[in-house]
Specification:
Radius of gyration: 16 Å
Helix content: 55-70%
Strand order of the largest sheet: 2-3-1-4-5
Strand content: 5-15%
Shape: globular
Bound molecules: thymidine-5'-diphosphate
CATH topology: Rossmann fold
CATH architecture: 3-Layer(aba) Sandwich
Order of helices and strands: EHEHHEHHEHHEH
Length: about 210
């Protein structure tokens, strides 16, 4: 039996990573067989690609290169980790997936949603998420914290124009692909965001009470 594939999406700093940990603890307590993973990365090869993408020295990187690198990391991730786990019947929870590329590269980098979708369709071999949790929060609020940090990576340093565009991209994508996407109000306190997330996950896993 194929497992279930859940991805978390949203602007930088929307709290996805914190929720990912909490959801992992919750599923563990329930005895559900699952893995958590993230993009870009998730495999040894993917983490190397991640370093290239986020390296602050790579300011000359073209948008097309960036989109292909994200797609290459994703292809390896699907091949090496996601498909095998789903085939073992596991729940796979992934921090970011194809929607991030459509929003950040397709709209943020002006490459076009369709063109970025084409290279990603090649990369993911038909493995679409069964559920996408979109963490809805205004990026103006969350980005200020990240951009100012010394540790900010190349993408975080792009500044608010790029990130606002990616956010507008997400808004467009929510309308284009409403199927399987559930919107979580990430401006709420973390306990509330966690509760909303669990409700959606339980609905998918058929354990909603
Ligand atoms: P991530 O590690 O998820 O950062 P954060 O935890 O701050 O959300 O992602 C790193 C950056 O990569 C983030 O700015 C979003 C960007 N990104 C893309 O532009 N395209 C993609 O396909 C993915 C997966 C991420």
């Amino acid at each position: 039996m194929r497992g279930q594939f859940i991805t978390l999406e949203g602007p930088d700093g929307s709290g996805k990573s914190t929720i990912l940990k909490l959801v992992g603890n919750y599923l563990r307590d329930k005895g559900i067989d699952f893995i958590t993973t993230r993009e870009p990365g998730g495999t040894e090869i993917g983490e190397k690609i991640r370093q290239i993408i986020l390296d602050n020295n790579n300011i000359n990187m073209g948008g097309e290169t960036e989109a292909l690198l994200y797609a290459a990391a994703r292809a390896q991730h699907v091949h090496e980790k996601i498909i095998p786990a789903l085939e073992e019947g596991k729940v796979v929870i992934c921090d970011r997936f194809i929607l991030s590329s459509l929003a950040y590269q397709g709209v943020g980098r002006n490459l076009g949603i369709e063109r970025v979708k084409d290279i990603n369709d090649f990369a993911i071999r038909g493995i679409y998420p069964d559920l996408i949790l979109f963490f809805h929060v205004n990026p103006e609020v969350t980005l200020k914290r990240k951009i100012g940090k010394k540790s900010a990576d190349r993408l975080e340093r792009e500044g608010s124009d790029f990130h606002n565009k990616a956010y507008q991209g997400y808004m467009k994508l929510l309308k284009m692909y409403p199927k399987n996407i559930k919107i979580i109000d990430a401006s709420k306190p973390i306990e509330e965001v966690f509760k909303q997330s669990i409700e959606e996950i339980e609905n998918l896993l058929g354990k909603g009470e």
